[in-house]
Structure formats: structure tokens, C-alpha cells
Amino acid sequence: MTNKLKIAHTSLHIEYIAGVHKMRITEAQAAKHIENAQWDVYISSPCDKFQNDYIKYVPVFRLINYIFKKDNTLNFYLKRIFTLNMLFVRIKYNLFVNRLTDEYDYVILRYNSADFFAFTFLKRKHKILFYHHSDEVGELKLYSTIGSLIEKITRKLHHKGCLGIIGVSPEILKIECKNIKTAKRLILPNGVFLKEDNVISFKGKPNTIKFVMISSVFHSYQGLELLIESIRSSKFNNFQVHFAGNVNEQQKKLIESTNRCVYDGLIKQNEAYDYLQKFSIGIGPLALYKKKLTQASALKVGEYLINGLPVIVGYDEFKFPNDFPYILKVNHFFSFNDFFEFALKIQSIPRKQIAQESFKYLNQVKIMNNFLEQLSK
Description:
There is one protein chain. 37% of the residues lie in helices and 19% in strands. By secondary structure, it is α/β, with parallel strands linked by helices. It folds into two domains: 5-188, Rossmann fold, CATH 3.40.50; 209-362, Rossmann fold (3-Layer(aba) Sandwich). The strands form three sheets. The chain has a seven-stranded parallel beta sheet with strand order 3-2-1-4-5-6-7, with helices on both faces. A six-stranded parallel beta sheet has the order 10-9-8-11-13-15, with helices on both faces. Strands 12-14 form a two-stranded parallel ribbon. The two termini are 22 Å apart.
């Protein structure tokens, strides 16, 4: 009997990020349905919100989370100062990763950027595949020039000796592999997991066309501000646009400045299905060009589609064919009039049909099996 390939996917997160948690649960659930590999998912964090039945949670410096327990902007940055930028955190995490490389055939390690000490103490890097979800140098420029510079200086050294690089999209893979020699170059996009017996009970569409835009944090590349500006100039009136997630005070005032927009606050994961069934169309990131990217694999786009909502985005969702009818791709100078006309055109299509045709490209088990095929070459 042939032994199964053993793969560990691990990441370090100082603060709780709902989108990351959902992504990793999806992966862990799908892993149970992969026949030719044992695929385990680990999260190291001081935040015990990551604990559940699917993920192997590894507590690290939980005292930090206790001290900075309240969720606010100040504590967010204080936690980073006291953890991500301190050498002993990296040492402890890297020692944990070393234990994984001793036990598993391959270790997928989510890349942490802008740290001089990152990966310094790793052993057996020939088993490690660094997983990139963004162009770290480019994205850090939006928030920290110093951080971007540190990443630019250290990225080649960090990757030295590793087995390979994984990109969440072909574009990310190309960016991260520039001037770096590795044996493996792989793509692992985000998907959706559904059990075979999982039957979604779809609800009818609202009479008034309702759009929804969800984000854990509305960074500039989500395009919230651009969207509201376009809504104000729309020639149509009989619609609503809802926003859900963390917004700052300025964004909240902007949303409330027009009666066509509604802010719904934070939506819990167990409320997501009922919430999404209230809407006609989902809106994904609209300004990814601010990160100088043209491709993505957004988790929220998959959630919209699997719940029967067509989607509007400002980039290429590369998993889908160019003529996929339930995704409208708009350019930098989009008009909300086009959003509304797309919604009218597609309003009569049943949610179930949208979900079924989308799942062909979102099936997380299939995505992971395709990744294993790439890995074996």
C-alpha cells in the first residue's frame, strides 16, 4: 500500500481576520475529501477565535491578545509592534515550522512580509513552499514605505533555498518569482467547499434591485469611495446598495450621505447565508489597480456566486472563462448605470442556476487536486 503524501499548510496571524479564517476552514474541509494526500491546516495565533473542529490551532503568545483584548485601531497596531516586529515571535513560530518540516513531505508556509528576521531560523527549506496572496512590495507601498523597502531588500534572501513559490493567481506567481530561482512554481486559488448532500435552499430575489458589497476592511482598493461617487451620478433611482464590514468614520458618513446606500454593520459568518439571500447582485473589489494588479481570486466573489448572486468586479477572476455570464468586469472608469443594466439583464435567471454553473470553477476539492498534480510534476 502506497503511503499518502503528507502536506501541512501553516500561517501566523496576530489579529483575527474573518476572511482568512473562512478561507482556511474551506481548505480544511475540502482536505478531508482528497484521496491521495493527507493535507492538514494549521494556524498559529494569540487569538483563540481561530479555534474550531477543522483547523489545527497553535496558540502563540496569548498574553498579547489578553492585554490588547479590545478590538480597535490602537490595539491593532500595538499588537503588531509587540509581536510581528519582535525577534522572539519569529523564533518561536519558525521552530514550530521546523517541527512540521520534520513530520511532513511538504510545508506550505503563508508568506509574512517586511520583517528582517522572517524565516531566518528555518531548517529544511527544501521542503517549504512559500504561499503569496499579494504583491507584498506593491501592497505595502499603500501603507508603509519603510515596510515596502524592507520587503524589497529581504525577499530574495527569504526565498533562498526554498522548494518553490505558490501564487494565489498567475499574476502574483509571476511577480513573486521575478529574479528568484526555485524548483516549483505553483498556483493555488481560493475556492468553495460544499458537501455532496449540501442542498442550498435559495430564496426568491427582491422586487427592488439590491446590490451588496462586503469586506472585512474597506481598503482603498475595494473602491467604496469610487462606487458611491458613481452611484450619485446614476440616472437610475429604483435600487439600493448595501455595505457590510468594518468601515471608518469617514466611509460611514459617505455611505449615509446618499439615501440610495445603506450600512448594515458587521455580519457574522453564521448569518451570511440569510443576509446574502436578500440581494440581487454582489460587488467585489473595484480598484485593484491601486495595487497594480489585474487578477485576483477573491473569497467573497465565490461566496456571492455560490449563493446565487451574480458579481461585478474591477479585475480578472482568472478561474472563470472570459465569457462567463454571471461576472461583469468593469474598468477603472466604471459607471453605475452599467451595474444597473447588468442587474436588469440577469434578474430573471434563477439563483440555483447561477450557483450550479459557478461551482464548476469554485470547487475547492478540485482546486486542491489540481494543485497536487502540479506539485507532482
